[in-house]
Amino acid sequence: MGTGMEEDSRGLCAGGSVTPDYVPFQIWDSLQGLSTYIRSMLSTQALLSAIGVGEKSATVIGATFQWFLRDFMGMLGGILFTFYQGSNLDSNAKMWRLVADFMNDIGMLMDLLSPLFPSALIAIVCLGSVSRSFTGVASGATRAALTQHFALENNAADISAKEGSQETVATMTGMALGMLLAHITRGHPFAVWFLFLSLTIFHMYANYKAVQCLSLTTLNYERSSILLQYFMQSGKVLTPEQVSPREHIFPFWARWRRLIKPKLQHEHVRLGAKASRLAHSDLMVLAELARSCYKDAKYLLLEKQGDIYVFIHKHANPADILKSYIHSLVIANLMNKSKSLHTHSQLWMNEQYPIFIEKLRSAGWAAERLLSPATVWRAHWVHGPANS
């Protein structure tokens, strides 16, 4: 009886070491990984055929050069992608996870197309390699962020090792099935394309379901906006599980949505704005605000043409940046309801912000910082009387 109780206790501890969304995510992640490795066998077979493997006319130096150029373009694409988008991966892990797998689909599609256009072989192969390089960077970065999310007891290394083993099993199974299907469909291009496109559709669906399972507890632009808007309306804070289905996770969704609907509140905020781009009149307004409404703050807010520009002090810490962003969202909420935006928003911040942060923590949110792209522009100002 004592032994049985000990086993139950161990099982409970093991189950409590990860978040509840870990298991459903891993199920869908394994299924999408399996479809990826099956398709990779089909696309690799097509690529090797395009390069000339098995043909007497093909030369070793020609195939080597094409493979080298393919890898070179992939590495270059990865470096450029990291340079331009590296700071965005943490704050939008769900979206970039979908983007990573979509770009992987594009890369494999290019490999499968390569035998059909021999005159454009190098361009197609390089394009596919660049697509997969985006996948490598985005997938690796988002996987690290998700591993930290799953680890409730600082057991990220243990979770990462288990995920690696799971991926290895999916790889071995996918490769075996892929080799079998590649052998069966050899010489039947219609069957290859039907199988590839069917697995690609399933892969995209499985990825969407995997990302949809996630209930991230970190605060980014959109989650903060959803939480604050609900709090200002009801005085309550949503849980991560309640916020998750309200998020928009499809990439670039905002661009086409703006054509038919107005901006969401967080889209009005420009965090880390550059003060040197302001006109002299705006700088004078900002100086007056620094002496009045924001004399004790490590940030300044300026409302201009419906947008809120947030200027971060060079000594601001992560808590200050989170506070500045929430304050800007409060102004966005009050924009059509009050003429004294800065005064009323400051009153709200003084009275409600501590309560809001405390309720966030109680609901399971990580309210220490805002996940945002690196705030490049910071400013320095000194609070004091106006110069005579």
UniProtKB/TrEMBL annotation:
Coiled-coil stretches noted in the UniProt entry, renumbered to this chain: none
Top-rank taxon, per record: Eukaryota
Protein's name according to its UniProt entry: Protein root UVB sensitive 3 isoform X4
Gene: LOC109720879
Protein root UVB sensitive/RUS domain boundaries: 17-234
Signal peptide residues on this chain, from the entry's feature table: none
Residue ranges of the TM segments: 67-86, 106-127, 190-208
Family label: Belongs to the RUS1 family.
Subcellular location: Membrane
UniProt cross-references to Pfam families, sorted A to Z: UVB_sens_C, UVB_sens_prot
Example of a GO cellular component annotation carried by this entry: membrane
Entries under InterPro entries matching the protein: RUS_fam, UVB_sens_C, UVB_sens_RUS_dom
Chief localization: membrane
Residue ranges occupied by any Root UVB sensitive protein C-terminal domain in the UniProt entry: 237-381
Keyword set includes Acyltransferase: no
Keywords annotated in UniProt: Membrane, Transmembrane, Transmembrane helix
